[in-house]
Amino acid sequence: MSRIFDKILDLIRIKNVLVSHHGYDEMMYDNILFRDAIEGVGKGIVVEEYPEYHKGPCVLVLQADRSGQPIHVVWGVPKNEPSHAVLITAYRPDPEKWEDDLVRRKK
Fold first, then answer.
1. Is 69 part of a structural domain of the chain?
2. pTM above 0.85, yes or no
3. What radius of gyration do the chain's Cα atoms show?
């Protein structure tokens, strides 16, 4: 398990969650509901970790929406605001860029 993801899950459980402007735009573009991102995070699989990201550590998580369709969500903990989990972006994975498992990038 990921320490970053554990921290994010803890913050989500106590409802300390923010959504970036980019996150809202991307969710709207791909017809992803915030509720789906929140409800699906507990069953998510960490795809990639970015512990040294300049704005704070974050993770790319494979989740599912309420209809079971896969979504990728990038969750982070801001360096200057570690008391909140932030949904940085969410999108429907492009099959041209991801292997069938949606965990490995195509080379």
1. yes
2. yes
3. 13
